[in-house]
């Protein structure tokens, strides 16, 4: 029973980390920002994602609003769940480290 409980806890931790984006802000626009996620393979190009702001986005860490976000900030973005046919990323939380 303890082994099953331990495996369940590990599974929940892994699943809670899925889908987050970690990277550096490389551009800021009027209602979005672009982050660059480094690749695990040094020979591969970094992955770039555009985050589209919405009224439900919460800012945490060293800032409390979109206006305070700056190019060069290290961020972790937790996205809202959106339908598969939605083409953008809507951040639920933006955590600046």
Structure write-up:
With 97 residues, the protein is of the alpha+beta class. It contains one helix and six strands.
Structure summarized in a few sentences:
This protein is an alpha+beta fold.
Write the layout of secondary structure elements.
Elements (H helix, E strand, L loop, with lengths): L1 H16 L3 E8 L3 E6 L9 E6 L5 E4 L12 E6 L11 E6 L1
Parallel strand pairs: 4-6
Antiparallel strand pairs: 1-2, 1-5, 2-3, 5-6
* Unreliably modeled segments: 8-17
Distance between the termini: 38 Å
Q: Helices and strands, in N-to-C order?
A: HEEEEEE
Largest sheet: 6 strands, mixed
Q: How many helical stretches?
A: 1
On the 0 to 100 scale, the average pLDDT is 85
**Looking at the structure, what is the overall shape?**
globular
Indicate the percent of residues in helices: 10-25%
Sheet/helix structural class? alpha+beta
Q: Spatial order of the strands in the main sheet? A: 3-2-1-5-6-4
**Tally of DSSP β-strands:** 6
Radius of gyration: 16 Å
Strand content: 35-45%
What keywords describe this structure?
single chain, globular, alpha+beta, 6 strands, 97 residues
